[in-house]
């Protein structure tokens, strides 16, 4: 027992700074695996789960695997942001977590603001119809969009309306990629589109199975989330961190590969092209570099 205890003590970080240093080294040493290999494996497993009847039940859309895989792909973002997350930032993340749960609960049970929908796949443990891992899926969309806009806008990001407007627009574009791919996989479905109701008729059958109301809801939810993130984090500290952390947007690289690939496989041309556009912006920001693509 003493040997086990000593091993645990040796492995366990001494403090927060030690934990951040270890995580950063782990991410930096495994960029290709985390940001390219994991999403490629994700594409194969998700497509097989959706289209191949022979995939065993324990593997098809395994919620635990989905959540763990997502956490691995989020690790570069966590490692990048953690050193600049002071008490105010942590409080903001806490508020955003509560907000994510709250608006999703309202959405699931009332259909507002996204449109009536229901989950077809349990994305990990669920409570009251909402995935407990929801913040892992939602909050990084906001953080990634914010960081990329800081890089692309440069000095223009100092203008609040320009900065916030650009980030909200980018979050919306990310949902243009995410939602059609998730609907095609069967992660969730929208009642009005599935039934061909009035909203579906209004939106021409929906945008690849997604009603227009969903994107209106995302404008609302993204605006609140982006404003909260902006108020919580020190923008100057984030800029300094972006300057010396080459992997800060590797999670967005994973997003482009995974959801761009899923949409391409299902023939969702517009979402796939939007994913490619986001990939182009990552290249422009020098965040989709040769070191990442080299195993």
Sum this structure up briefly.
The protein has 295 residues and is mostly helical. The chain has 14 helices and four strands.
Please tell me the overall pLDDT: 91
Amino- and carboxy-terminal Cα gap? 39 Å
Question: Count of helical segments?
Answer: 14
- Domains, number: 1
Protein name: Carotenoid biosynthesis protein
Transmembrane segments: 32-52, 58-77, 89-112, 132-153, 165-188, 253-283
InterPro entries: BABR_hydratase, CruF, CruF-like
Keywords: Membrane, Transmembrane, Transmembrane helix
What does this entry look like structurally?
This protein is mostly helical and 295 residues long. It has one domain (29-293). The chain has helices at 2-11, 16-29, 31-51, 63-81, 87-110, 134-153, 160-185, 191-195, 198-202, 212-232, 235-244, 250-265, 269-284, 290-293, and strands spanning 117-119, 126-127, 130-131, 188-190. It is globular and about 50 Å long. The protein starts with a helix and ends with a helix.
Describe the structure using short key phrases.
295 residues; mainly alpha; two-stranded antiparallel ribbon; 14 helices
Topology:
Blueprint: H1 2-11, H2 16-29, H3 31-51, H4 63-81, H5 87-110, E1 117-119, E2 126-127, E3 130-131, H6 134-153, H7 160-185, E4 188-190, H8 191-195, H9 198-202, H10 212-232, H11 235-244, H12 250-265, H13 269-284, H14 290-293
Antiparallel strand pairs: 1-4, 2-3
């Amino acid at each position: 027992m003493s040997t086990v205890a000593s091993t645990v003590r040796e492995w366990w970080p001494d403090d927060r700074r030690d934990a951040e240093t270890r995580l950063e080294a782990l991410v930096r040493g495994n960029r290709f695996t985390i940001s390219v290999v994991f999403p490629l494996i994700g594409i194969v497993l998700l497509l097989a789960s959706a289209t191949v009847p022979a995939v065993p039940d324990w593997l098809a859309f395994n919620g635990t695997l989905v959540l763990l895989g997502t956490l691995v792909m989020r690790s570069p973002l966590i490692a990048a942001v953690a050193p600049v997350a002071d008490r105010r930032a942590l409080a903001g993340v806490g508020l955003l977590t509560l907000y994510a749960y709250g608006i999703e609960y309202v959405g699931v049970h009332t259909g507002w603001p996204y449109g009536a929908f229901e989950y077809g796949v349990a994305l990990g443990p669920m409570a009251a119809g909402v995935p407990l891992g929801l913040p892992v899926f939602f909050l990084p969309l906001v953080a990634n969009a914010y960081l990329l806009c800081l890089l692309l806008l440069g000095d223009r990001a100092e203008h609040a309306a320009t900065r916030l407007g650009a980030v909200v627009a980018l979050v919306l574009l990310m949902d243009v990629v995410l939602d059609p791919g998730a609907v095609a996989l069967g992660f969730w479905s929208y009642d009005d589109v599935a039934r061909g109701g009035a909203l579906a008729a209004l939106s021409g059958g929906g945008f690849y199975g997604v009603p227009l109301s969903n994107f209106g809801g995302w404008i609302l939810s993204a605006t609140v989330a982006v404003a909260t993130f902006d108020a919580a984090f020190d923008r100057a500290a984030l800029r300094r961190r972006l300057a010396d952390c080459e992997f800060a947007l590797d999670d967005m690289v994973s997003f482009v590969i995974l959801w761009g690939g899923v949409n391409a496989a299902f023939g969702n041309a517009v979402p796939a092209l939007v994913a490619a556009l986001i990939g182009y912006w990552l290249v422009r920001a020098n965040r989709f570099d040769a070191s990442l693509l080299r195993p």
